[in-house]
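Standup notes, structure subgroup. Blocker cleared on the flavin mononucleotide input:
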Amino acid sequence: MKHLIIYAHPSKRSFSFQLKNALKVESERRGWSATIRDLYEMKFDPVLWPSDLEKMKTGNTEDYILKEQELVKEADIISVVYPLWWAGFPAILKGYIDKILSYGFAYKAGKNGIEGLLTNKKVYLYTSMGNKVEEYEEKGLIEAFRKIQGGEIFEFCGMNVEHQQFFPQIPSASTEEIEKHLQVALSVFEPISENVSS
Ligand SMILES: Cc1cc2nc3c(=O)[nH]c(=O)nc-3n(C[C@H](O)[C@H](O)[C@H](O)COP(=O)(O)O)c2cc1C
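Run returned:
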Protein backbone atom coordinates (compact mmCIF):
# COMPACT_ATOMS: atom_id res chain seq x y z
CA MET A 1 0.00 0.00 0.00
CA LYS A 2 1.21 3.46 -0.81
CA HIS A 3 0.31 6.07 1.76
CA LEU A 4 0.60 9.71 0.77
CA ILE A 5 0.56 12.10 3.74
CA ILE A 6 -0.16 15.69 2.79
CA TYR A 7 0.82 17.87 5.71
CA ALA A 8 0.08 21.58 6.04
CA HIS A 9 1.30 23.15 9.28
CA PRO A 10 4.06 25.73 9.72
CA SER A 11 5.19 24.62 13.20
CA LYS A 12 7.14 21.62 14.43
CA ARG A 13 5.64 22.25 17.86
CA SER A 14 2.09 21.60 16.64
CA PHE A 15 -0.20 18.65 17.25
CA SER A 16 -0.43 18.29 13.47
CA PHE A 17 3.35 17.78 13.30
CA GLN A 18 3.15 14.96 15.87
CA LEU A 19 0.20 13.41 14.06
CA LYS A 20 1.98 13.49 10.71
CA ASN A 21 4.95 11.67 12.27
CA ALA A 22 2.67 9.14 13.99
CA LEU A 23 0.96 8.38 10.68
CA LYS A 24 4.33 7.69 9.08
CA VAL A 25 5.40 5.36 11.90
CA GLU A 26 2.02 3.55 11.76
CA SER A 27 2.35 3.14 7.97
CA GLU A 28 5.76 1.58 8.35
CA ARG A 29 4.48 -0.74 11.09
CA ARG A 30 1.87 -1.92 8.63
CA GLY A 31 4.42 -2.45 5.88
CA TRP A 32 3.07 0.43 3.78
CA SER A 33 5.32 2.88 2.04
CA ALA A 34 4.75 6.41 3.33
CA THR A 35 5.51 9.62 1.49
CA ILE A 36 5.13 12.92 3.30
CA ARG A 37 4.54 16.13 1.41
CA ASP A 38 5.30 18.88 3.91
CA LEU A 39 3.89 21.89 2.07
CA TYR A 40 5.66 24.52 4.20
CA GLU A 41 9.00 22.75 4.01
CA MET A 42 8.51 22.51 0.23
CA LYS A 43 7.67 26.24 0.19
CA PHE A 44 4.74 25.31 -2.01
CA ASP A 45 3.44 28.38 -3.86
CA PRO A 46 -0.33 28.16 -3.34
CA VAL A 47 -1.32 30.99 -5.67
CA LEU A 48 -2.83 30.03 -8.97
CA TRP A 49 -1.33 32.88 -10.97
CA PRO A 50 -2.72 33.93 -14.38
CA SER A 51 0.16 32.11 -16.09
CA ASP A 52 -0.62 28.94 -14.09
CA LEU A 53 -4.25 29.01 -15.19
CA GLU A 54 -3.16 29.49 -18.78
CA LYS A 55 -0.77 26.53 -18.54
CA MET A 56 -3.51 24.44 -16.94
CA LYS A 57 -5.88 25.22 -19.79
CA THR A 58 -3.34 24.40 -22.47
CA GLY A 59 -2.20 21.19 -20.75
CA ASN A 60 1.29 22.63 -20.39
CA THR A 61 1.65 21.36 -16.81
CA GLU A 62 4.79 22.34 -14.92
CA ASP A 63 7.12 19.68 -13.57
CA TYR A 64 6.51 20.44 -9.88
CA ILE A 65 2.78 19.90 -10.41
CA LEU A 66 3.33 16.73 -12.47
CA LYS A 67 5.46 15.37 -9.62
CA GLU A 68 2.68 15.90 -7.07
CA GLN A 69 0.08 14.48 -9.45
CA GLU A 70 2.18 11.35 -9.91
CA LEU A 71 2.30 10.89 -6.12
CA VAL A 72 -1.47 11.33 -5.87
CA LYS A 73 -2.06 8.93 -8.76
CA GLU A 74 0.17 6.24 -7.27
CA ALA A 75 -1.31 6.49 -3.74
CA ASP A 76 -3.76 3.93 -2.37
CA ILE A 77 -4.33 5.94 0.79
CA ILE A 78 -4.13 9.70 1.20
CA SER A 79 -4.07 11.35 4.61
CA VAL A 80 -4.42 15.11 4.86
CA VAL A 81 -3.25 16.68 8.12
CA TYR A 82 -4.06 20.33 8.79
CA PRO A 83 -5.38 22.82 11.34
CA LEU A 84 -8.76 24.46 10.81
CA TRP A 85 -8.11 28.10 10.02
CA TRP A 86 -11.08 30.45 9.69
CA ALA A 87 -13.33 27.43 9.25
CA GLY A 88 -11.33 26.20 6.28
CA PHE A 89 -8.00 24.91 5.03
CA PRO A 90 -4.75 26.84 5.55
CA ALA A 91 -4.15 28.76 2.31
CA ILE A 92 -1.14 26.63 1.41
CA LEU A 93 -3.30 23.48 1.40
CA LYS A 94 -6.14 25.12 -0.49
CA GLY A 95 -3.64 26.21 -3.12
CA TYR A 96 -2.14 22.71 -3.33
CA ILE A 97 -5.62 21.37 -4.07
CA ASP A 98 -6.30 24.16 -6.61
CA LYS A 99 -3.13 23.32 -8.51
CA ILE A 100 -2.80 19.55 -8.14
CA LEU A 101 -6.40 18.33 -8.47
CA SER A 102 -6.74 19.95 -11.85
CA TYR A 103 -9.20 19.41 -14.67
CA GLY A 104 -8.17 16.49 -16.87
CA PHE A 105 -6.09 14.94 -14.09
CA ALA A 106 -8.54 14.70 -11.18
CA TYR A 107 -11.89 15.15 -12.94
CA LYS A 108 -13.39 15.80 -16.32
CA ALA A 109 -16.73 16.69 -17.82
CA GLY A 110 -18.30 13.56 -19.30
CA LYS A 111 -21.59 12.99 -21.09
CA ASN A 112 -23.39 12.56 -17.77
CA GLY A 113 -21.72 15.44 -15.99
CA ILE A 114 -18.56 15.57 -13.93
CA GLU A 115 -16.55 12.37 -13.74
CA GLY A 116 -14.01 11.84 -10.94
CA LEU A 117 -10.83 10.30 -12.33
CA LEU A 118 -9.05 9.38 -9.08
CA THR A 119 -10.90 6.21 -8.13
CA ASN A 120 -9.80 3.43 -5.75
CA LYS A 121 -8.24 5.78 -3.23
CA LYS A 122 -9.06 6.03 0.44
CA VAL A 123 -8.84 9.49 1.95
CA TYR A 124 -8.53 10.36 5.64
CA LEU A 125 -8.85 13.96 6.78
CA TYR A 126 -7.35 15.03 10.11
CA THR A 127 -8.54 18.44 11.24
CA SER A 128 -7.16 20.03 14.40
CA MET A 129 -9.15 22.89 15.92
CA GLY A 130 -9.20 25.50 18.65
CA ASN A 131 -12.96 25.26 19.18
CA LYS A 132 -15.16 22.51 20.60
CA VAL A 133 -16.83 20.13 18.16
CA GLU A 134 -20.20 20.74 19.92
CA GLU A 135 -20.10 24.47 19.14
CA TYR A 136 -19.69 23.75 15.45
CA GLU A 137 -22.27 20.96 15.56
CA GLU A 138 -24.86 23.38 16.96
CA LYS A 139 -24.30 25.59 13.93
CA GLY A 140 -24.46 22.65 11.51
CA LEU A 141 -20.85 23.28 10.57
CA ILE A 142 -19.31 19.84 11.24
CA GLU A 143 -21.54 18.45 8.51
CA ALA A 144 -20.64 21.42 6.32
CA PHE A 145 -16.90 20.81 6.87
CA ARG A 146 -17.36 17.15 5.92
CA LYS A 147 -19.23 18.11 2.77
CA ILE A 148 -16.98 20.96 1.70
CA GLN A 149 -13.54 19.66 2.74
CA GLY A 150 -14.25 16.00 1.90
CA GLY A 151 -17.23 15.59 -0.43
CA GLU A 152 -16.86 18.57 -2.71
CA ILE A 153 -13.13 18.02 -3.21
CA PHE A 154 -11.90 14.46 -2.80
CA GLU A 155 -15.16 12.65 -3.54
CA PHE A 156 -15.81 15.03 -6.41
CA CYS A 157 -12.57 13.67 -7.87
CA GLY A 158 -13.69 10.03 -7.43
CA MET A 159 -11.93 9.26 -4.13
CA ASN A 160 -13.55 7.68 -1.08
CA VAL A 161 -13.39 9.83 2.02
CA GLU A 162 -13.28 7.11 4.65
CA HIS A 163 -13.12 9.39 7.64
CA GLN A 164 -12.71 12.99 8.77
CA GLN A 165 -11.48 13.20 12.34
CA PHE A 166 -11.79 16.50 14.23
CA PHE A 167 -9.44 17.19 17.13
CA PRO A 168 -11.03 19.89 19.34
CA GLN A 169 -9.45 22.44 21.72
CA ILE A 170 -5.91 21.43 20.82
CA PRO A 171 -4.15 24.57 22.15
CA SER A 172 -5.34 23.78 25.70
CA ALA A 173 -5.05 19.96 25.50
CA SER A 174 -2.92 18.12 28.06
CA THR A 175 -0.15 15.69 27.08
CA GLU A 176 -2.50 12.81 27.97
CA GLU A 177 -5.27 14.23 25.79
CA ILE A 178 -2.85 14.68 22.89
CA GLU A 179 -1.71 11.07 23.33
CA LYS A 180 -5.36 9.91 23.24
CA HIS A 181 -6.01 11.95 20.09
CA LEU A 182 -3.04 10.32 18.40
CA GLN A 183 -4.34 6.87 19.30
CA VAL A 184 -7.80 7.73 17.96
CA ALA A 185 -6.24 9.03 14.75
CA LEU A 186 -4.41 5.77 14.11
CA SER A 187 -7.36 3.59 15.08
CA VAL A 188 -9.29 4.60 11.96
CA PHE A 189 -7.22 2.20 9.90
CA GLU A 190 -8.43 -1.39 9.68
CA PRO A 191 -6.83 -3.67 12.29
CA ILE A 192 -3.85 -5.62 11.01
CA SER A 193 -4.99 -9.17 10.30
CA GLU A 194 -3.53 -11.72 12.73
CA ASN A 195 -4.04 -14.51 10.16
CA VAL A 196 -0.58 -14.94 8.72
CA SER A 197 -0.66 -17.46 5.90
CA SER A 198 2.00 -20.13 6.10
C1 LIG B 1 -5.07 31.82 11.32
C2 LIG B 1 -5.78 30.94 12.29
C3 LIG B 1 -7.14 30.72 12.14
C4 LIG B 1 -7.81 29.85 13.00
N1 LIG B 1 -9.14 29.61 12.81
C5 LIG B 1 -9.78 28.69 13.57
C6 LIG B 1 -11.14 28.35 13.32
O1 LIG B 1 -11.79 28.85 12.43
N2 LIG B 1 -11.70 27.40 14.12
C7 LIG B 1 -11.03 26.77 15.12
O2 LIG B 1 -11.60 25.91 15.79
N3 LIG B 1 -9.73 27.08 15.37
C8 LIG B 1 -9.10 28.01 14.62
N4 LIG B 1 -7.78 28.31 14.86
C9 LIG B 1 -7.07 27.54 15.90
C10 LIG B 1 -6.34 26.35 15.28
O3 LIG B 1 -7.19 25.56 14.51
C11 LIG B 1 -5.70 25.52 16.38
O4 LIG B 1 -4.82 26.33 17.08
C12 LIG B 1 -4.95 24.35 15.81
O5 LIG B 1 -5.76 23.50 15.09
C13 LIG B 1 -4.29 23.56 16.93
O6 LIG B 1 -3.64 22.43 16.39
P1 LIG B 1 -2.11 22.44 15.97
O7 LIG B 1 -1.30 22.26 17.23
O8 LIG B 1 -1.99 21.29 15.04
O9 LIG B 1 -1.88 23.78 15.34
C14 LIG B 1 -7.09 29.20 14.04
C15 LIG B 1 -5.72 29.44 14.20
C16 LIG B 1 -5.06 30.30 13.33
C17 LIG B 1 -3.58 30.52 13.51
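Discussed briefly. Residues 7 and 81 are 5 Å apart (CA to CA).
Next: hand off to the docking folks.
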